[in-house]
Amino acid sequence: MSWLFGGDSKKEEPKQEVSFAFDPQSAQDVSSFLNTDALDTSKLHPLAGLDRGLEYLNLEDESLTDLPGAHGIIPIKDWTDDLCYGTGAVYLSALGVGGAYGLAEGLRKTQNAASPRLRLNGVLNAVTRRGPFLGNMAGVLALTYNGINSTIGYYRGKHDALNSLSAAGLAGAIFKATKGPKPMLISSGLMMSVAGAWCAFKAAVF
């Protein structure tokens, strides 16, 4: 009859005591509860995939390209790897060479500067002028060369010196296409010389 007098008809649920595996009172220092042996990654969420190890660091052999002559300094999976690695390596190398040349040029031209601040300004201007210019030019050439080389290799079914020389000649001609026939021939010849040296290096080392 408790409902007639406004009493609470709900029964109190028994409280359950929660016990933890770690007792804070038993800790003496930090190393007592930072125990790496007790960490079991398999009990974590399965989507984390921590029980399988670091799979993204493993390069599967079956995913590599099977075109003859396609492998160089590092193994590649397809033409995009060759395009990215080749272009990036050439760009960074040319950027460093251009920056070093600009540094030497700036130091030479500002050796009679009135103050150290003016000399520093002149050196920085020379570095930022020569480095990006040479890096961007080499990056465009490498991007064009790798794109043409990968296309020729795809249709021929292999990568060899003929692919490299043809791609270098076409890339050099395209780079100077707006300057006329003579600059196109000079640029094409220079690119073919560099490609020939690279092919000789690959044949000697690999």
Automatic annotation (TrEMBL):
What InterPro entries does its record include?
A: Tim23-like (IPR045238)
Q: Does the keyword Nucleotide-binding apply?
A: no
Record's Pfam families?
Tim17 (PF02466)
UniProt superkingdom: Eukaryota
Q: Where in the cell is it found?
A: Membrane
What is the protein named?
Mitochondrial import inner membrane translocase subunit TIM23
Q: Which organism is it from?
A: Trichomonascus ciferrii
**GO:BP terms for this protein?**
protein import into mitochondrial matrix
Per its record, what are the GO molecular function terms?
A: protein transmembrane transporter activity
Primary localisation category: membrane
KW Transferase (keyword) present: no
Quote the PANTHER family the UniProt record gives: SD19278P, TIM23
How is this protein annotated for GO cellular component?
TIM23 mitochondrial import inner membrane translocase complex
Give the record's keywords alphabetically.
Membrane, Transmembrane, Transmembrane helix
How does the protein associate with the membrane?
A: Multi-pass membrane protein
